[in-house]
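Lab notebook: predicted structure, single chain.

Context: the supervisor wants predicted structures on file for every construct in the current expression panel, including those that have not yet been purified. This is the next one on the list. No modifications to the sequence; it matches the entry in the shared construct table.
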Amino acid sequence: MLKDVHHVSMYGLDLGGVQQFLDRHFGILPIKTEGADEAVASGMRVAAASLLKARVAIFPVGPSLLEFMQPRGRLGRHYDVVRRNGGKPTVSHICWKLEDISSRHAELLSRGADIRERDWAGMSAHGGYYVFNIVAEEAVRGVWFQFAENLTLSEVTAIEEGQVKTRSHAREVEATGHKWVSSDVPAGALKYVHHVCYEVWGLDYMVDYMRKVFGVEPFKREDVSSEGLRAASFHFGRTIAQFVEPTRFDDANADFALRFGNHPGFCGGGVSHVGWAVDNLDDRIRELSGSGVRFVQAQPVVSPLGGYRLIDTAPELSGGLTFQLCEDV
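Prediction complete. Output recorded below exactly as produced.
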């Protein structure tokens, strides 16, 4: 049912730093921005509602998108997600691609999924694609599942010509705000989303949920006692979805899961990190090092879950955001 990642949604406090890093080191430019022209003059009083609207830049990464949002003020769910992660950039949610989204919506409802838009919400507030959400309540252990399907060219034309009205669960979508998804802007050095890692409590429960709601089985399950975790991995297109359960008290996985993995509201998502696929990891590291990028590890390491090598960029020069670069072995 799930077909690769449609987009990765992240919140952070330095959109400019992230945009500059992606442009300089990966050759990736945004294909859509929102809110950049709504800066408030110093000292001007504004309504709290306007501060809830984040600044947004959406970047193409192979067949997927990276959606980065910067909160305008210290309130609202965008800021709450960043606050719970100590002010560091944080994955809000992963949006998965579906085909024939209205049929999949009805199918998931019939399987017991707790879908937020039970009466079919329609368009994304960003325009360009249809979207719906499975809410992050106890039924899915705090995991926020979002699903999307891009508009076809004929649908975009019909909207722009006024033949079809657009509808969103969030706000009105302008008739001219839909072509950006099919932009021809080059996607740069990052090829696609290699993997996403969900930190959860109750791994067996989550595997059973995936089986009964999505009809999928993990291709690998493992107990990595040396790392203090149990894991189940699923293939969705080229992307691996890893569900990880901490097994030790004094551990980074447990610390993250306590803050995000069991959150009962419609935010968070329990995604600890995203891995981005690159061609020839060693050559890419040399190129990035030559342009001034620093790395957390001295050299690539093999993932504790096996199957690929990885290295993390240091966050100081990228708006606080760490990019994990991956290559299969």
